[in-house]
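Table 4 source record.
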Amino acid sequence: MKASVKFGLFLAAVALLTAAPALATGQDKTPAKKQDTSGASKKGLRVFFASHSLLWYAPNPIGDLAKAAGFSDHKLVGHQKIGGSKTEQHWNMAEGQNEAKKALRSGEVDVFVMSPKQFPDQGIENFVKLGLEHNPNMHFTVQISWSQSDADPLNLPKGVPPGFDREKDPEHLKKVLAPNIKAAETQADDINKKFGKGSPVLFLVPSAQASIALRLKVYNKQLPGVTKQGELFMDNVHATAPLEALNTYLHFAALYHQSPVGLPMASMLKNAKKAAYDEKFNRNLQEIAWEVLTSYPHSGVTAKK
């Protein structure tokens, strides 16, 4: 073999070796169409939910997403359900029936998920204190829910407007929901200062903000498959499949600090069996969830660069 040919082969080999670290560290800027989890096995979380009905649908689909993302040992420890509840109602449940307290006392929970109606809610701090006593390494997430009848959550139930109209500019919802969101952030800051020992232990899941982002897409006719905001709700507060799926992606990402984009379609969206809810539609929901979550400092999740 001629010397020039040998030298050319040597340069090619060096180029491949030099490129390898960049690919391994994610410096390749080519976006992947779907997440490659083949052969992946990452540490899953043990999760308990204490929630009202705006989160009842999510735990099992979150588990499906976690496993699809490579967290094979993700575990749903339990789910305590009280319709229309404050977190304090979960705290005050009779000891013999209180699965949430039982789970925390076992020390076998990594993340405890709550969904109060409004803030502040004393039950949140009570659960944080109890949980950390038995597992000092655990974390807590708290959903900021969208509101009943688009009313101010801090003024419920008397503030519910009769015959309200969903088909309005969602921008005004930011003002309506702002006081409750601010109250959530103030309570989260206080709890983290009290119990965090320099690092936050409680994080907020911006479900209200994500619902506004989704409704704004519909209002601006940027979400093919949904023509009216009312299609996102089955009544004055409960969600239909698209909003349920969006919130499920949001909670998955909040738990695992990983984008849901490219993961399989959530079961509630698939089970709706609507042609409009295709893979492109699903990806739109996943992208909205990730954008809203990573743009919200109190979620503790940032987009990897």
